[in-house]
Specification:
alpha+beta, 269 residues, two-stranded antiparallel sheet, binds zinc ion, single chain
């Protein structure tokens, strides 16, 4: 029976690997958008009904504006690189909720939430663009779906002899992978490699959107300063800010500007 499970795991791994345009890497992902997105959209709507959404304030309008610029930059990049229609199933939405937690996230399919608690750290529209670019990058790189897929493989491994793949209880899988439910997202940290990917992709998208990528290193310095002292807030515990991250962002900023120049963007806000 163990052999069957092993074969199944190998089959799923091979069958589910596809190249992500943003990372250029073959990644494990056997949950198509058509399965993941409807769950994400439902969870997002539920989150909005259970939280204090701020509408029509200067900050909420700014969040929407940055989100639109970032998502439009991602779409331009995809078209230019031969992936038109890649985001056709996305239903971008940007909301600000009144909550002092330092947090922001983007669910699969482009459903974004910023918490008011992160605004003192982002400080400006440019700072919001850093976080927006990073969170959107997680979604574009399918990091959440990969986490679900890895979880499924783990589960298959764990129940060797009881081939449970026929009914993997996908909703439960989804909730685990995204840390949804009472805690909403972000409770499970992304791996360090996913963080690095999101940093690099986010930097390019923000630059194409016309935001100065030099801000990214500054933003993460402020995050680092903010995380000192007591127990770090949610965002900081799942997005640990360290010197390597700050150094990377500093080093990559010129390349992000060069990428933006390909889209005619040479001046940055
Ligand atoms: Zn991240």
């Amino acid at each position: 029976m163990k052999k069957i499970v092993l074969v199944l795991v190998i089959f799923l791994t091979v069958a589910a690997c596809k190249v992500n345009p943003f990372t250029g890497k073959k990644v494990l992902n056997f949950y198509p958008n058509s399965q993941v997105f409807p769950m994400a959209f439902a969870q997002y709507d539920q989150f909005l009904t259970e939280n204090n959404v701020i509408e029509n304030s200067a900050d909420s309008k700014m969040i929407t504006k940055v989100g639109q610029r970032i998502s439009s930059a991602a779409e331009r990049w995809l078209v230019a690189n031969g992936y038109p229609g890649y985001l056709k199933d996305y239903k971008w939405e940007y909301n600000l909720v009144k909550d002092e937690t330092v947090n922001a996230w983007c669910m699969p399919g482009g459903k974004i939430v910023f918490y008011t608690g992160i605004l003192p750290i982002t400080q400006t529209e440019r700072g919001v663009a850093v976080v927006m670019g990073h969170e959107v990058a997680h979604a574009l790189a399918d990091h959440g779906a990969q986490r679900m897929s890895a979880g499924t493989l783990q589960q298959i491994g764990a129940v060797a002899g009881n081939v449970a793949i026929q009914d993997p209880n996908k909703r439960n899988m989804f909730n685990q992978a995204y840390g949804l439910g009472s805690n909403v997202l972000g409770m499970l940290p992304f791996s360090r490699s996913h963080e690095t990917e999101a940093d690099r992709i986010g930097l390019q998208i923000m630059a194409i959107a016309g935001y100065n990528p030099d801000e990214a290193a500054q933003l993460w310095k402020r995050m680092k300063a903010n995380s000192g002292g007591q127990a770090p807030p949610e965002f900081m515990s799942t997005h640990p800010s360290n010197d390597t991250r700050i150094n990377n962002l500093t080093e990559w900023a010129p390349a992000a500007k060069q990428e933006a120049a390909k889209f005619g963007v040479t001046k940055f806000q």
